[in-house]
Amino acid sequence: MFLNTLTPKFYVALTGTSSLISGLILIFEWWYFRKYGTSFIEQVSVSHLRPLLGGVDSSSPSNSNTSNGEADSNRQSVSECKVWRNPLNLFRGAEYNRYTWVTGREPLTYYDMNLSAQDHQTFFTCDSDHLRPADAIMQKAWRERNPQARISAAHEALELEESSLGHNCATAYILLAEEEATTIMEAERLFKQALKAGESCYRRSQQLQHHGTQYEAQHRRDTNVLVYIKRRLAMCSRKLGRTREAVKMMRDLMKEFPLLSMFNIHENLLESLLELQNYADVQAVLAKYDDISLPKSATICYTAALLKARAVSDKFSPEAASRRGLSTAEMNAVEAIHRAVEFNPHVPKYLLEMKSLILPPEHILKRGDSEAIAYAFFHLQHWKRVEGALNLLHCTWEGTFRMIPYPLEKGHLFYPYPICTETADRELLPMFHEVSVYPKKELPFFILFTAGLCSFTAMLALLTHQFPELMGVFAKAFLSTLFAPLNFIMEKVESILPSSLWHQLTRI
User: Fold this and answer.
1) Cα-based distances in Å from 357 to 11, 97, 346, 349, 432
2) Partners of 363 in the beta sheet?
3) Which DSSP letter does residue 295 get?
4) For residue 407, is the peptide bond before it cis, meaning its omega torsion is within 30 degrees of 0?
5) What ranges in 81-183 are assigned the alpha helix state H?
6) DSSP 3-state of 364
7) Are 479 and 15 in contact, with CB atoms under 8 Å apart?
8) From CA 194, how far away is CA 172, in angstroms rounded?
9) Number of C-beta neighbours around residue 424 at 10 A
């Protein structure tokens, strides 16, 4: 009787509502997957429903061992996802801000700029800054979020120094060169003034560094300031076309301060030597820094691959190689490319121009998309300059993934690929950039399920609206078939039980 009372309008409303609900779930699931890289329903099921259903027993020793192992892996992933200062970072005023003026887009994220502020406080301040008024002003300036407030504070510090006839404040010139200067030439002029002030501060603190911990900290700060200024001056020379001068400045800086490897000046040197096409010196630098005991980077691995490819790329032909096989030199080049791709699999798409480049961030994540952007932004021209190098890369780079079918579980020449790179890169890179993800994630089951459910119910709603009588017959036939086993069981029970007992059961 209930089925006979249902009208076609009921079926239209039922299927339409089901389609709407499943469509909303699909939209939310897709948005959540694009933002966080996982399914919301799957995450809730694993995190909350599975423990309620008894899927995890925290009291068992095996599970405690498992949890300890997961904690170790989490600690390892956190250490692997350490963010590094980009050794080739651009100038905010002369480059990043000019991009914003032209395009209206912000190339730097708040997270990236906040990391830079922390770096500046670490490198350019010390505990004794409050004893000197200008340094106290700069200590506050580095903490300011507003760029105009930082620039105003730097001018105030310089005016204070001039009025007191004291030594010029080197860090104030650094801030103005980085953020206020609108051209590289203007930034270089300010850095030269900073160099003059920084050298005098460095010589003064060098004589007093052994007089106590306070003087030692001040000398360490003055050393960081001097190294930073000289490195940025070398980068100004490189950007203004005086590459040989830049190379000399970098070599002198590395000889004068050999222990300050945190600035990664050798990566600036490699890029400048490649611009001069001085490949013998590039090989000499790689021989020193491409060591198993030293941390790797995309610059080290891909520059080594470029030098190996340069020896064979001009005569390389995939057809000829498939017929006769690879020579020893070609095999070495291919292995070097596979090694580089294993370290950072995002770089080839930028070098082969399969993915558009953006301005590199001020901080990078090694083996991540941010490092790939920073490398390709400066080194794409060097790969193009070597005849056939990009062709060799195009023919061989995807073979790396056949050697490492499960990169998150096991590596070949390096540790397994860290699972945290996507999250960190999304924080470092601007919203308008589509972050490269490795390994490529498949769509979760629940997105496919809700997409199918939404499409199916929408089709039923449309058919019911167009052919109400026919779909009503189909619906009644389907429901009758669905409930046929239940009706059969009820008839059997009625035939077995006495009529009085059956009437009591039906009444209940």
Assistant:
1) 52, 17, 12, 10, 12
2) 85
3) -
4) no
5) 97-103, 110-124, 133-141, 147-163, 170-175
6) strand
7) no
8) 8
9) 22
pLDDT digits (tens, 9 = 90+) for 446-488: 566 667 767 777 777 777 777 777 766 776 777 677 666 656 6
The b/e string for 95-124 (b: 16+ C-beta within 10 A; e otherwise) is: bbbebeeeeeeebbbeebbebbeebbeebb
Per DSSP, 107 falls in state -
CB atoms within 10 A of CB 45: 14
Show the tokens assigned to 497.
Answer: 């039980």
Tens of pLDDT, residue by residue over 119-178, are 998 888 888 877 788 888 988 998 888 999 999 999 998 888 777 655 578 899 999 999
Contacts 24+ apart (CB under 8 A), 165-168: 166/132, 166/134, 167/197, 167/200, 167/201, 167/204, 168/193, 168/196, 168/197
Tell me how far apart the alpha carbons of residues 192 and 162 are, in angstroms, rounded to a whole number. Answer: 17
Residue 303: band (very low, low, confident or very high) from pLDDT cuts 50, 70, 90: very high
- C-beta of residue 90 within 8 angstroms of C-beta of residue 360: yes
Cα angle, residue 400 at apex, residues 399 and 402 outer, rounded to 5°: 70
- pLDDT one-digit tens code per residue, 36-91: 666 677 666 666 655 655 544 433 444 444 444 444 444 444 445 788 999 999 99
- State how far Cα 171 lies from the chain centre: 30
Are the C-beta atoms of residues 418 and 77 closer than 8 Å to each other? yes
User: What's the number of CA atoms in the CB half-sphere (13 Å) around residue 378?
Assistant: 26
Q: Residue 487: what residue type?
A: N
Nearest to 428 by CA among 379, 372, 378, 381: 372
Q: Which residues contact 90 (CB under 8 A, 6 or more apart)?
A: 96, 359, 360, 362
State the residue for tokens 């190294």: 227
Pick the residue with more confidence: 375 or 37? 375
pLDDT digits (tens, 9 = 90+) for 306-327: 999 998 888 888 787 778 878 8
Rounded distance, CA 376 to CA 348, Å?
9
Q: How is residue 47 annotated by DSSP?
A: I
CA distances to 122, 286, 296, 488 from 481, rounded to whole Å, are 75, 75, 67, 11
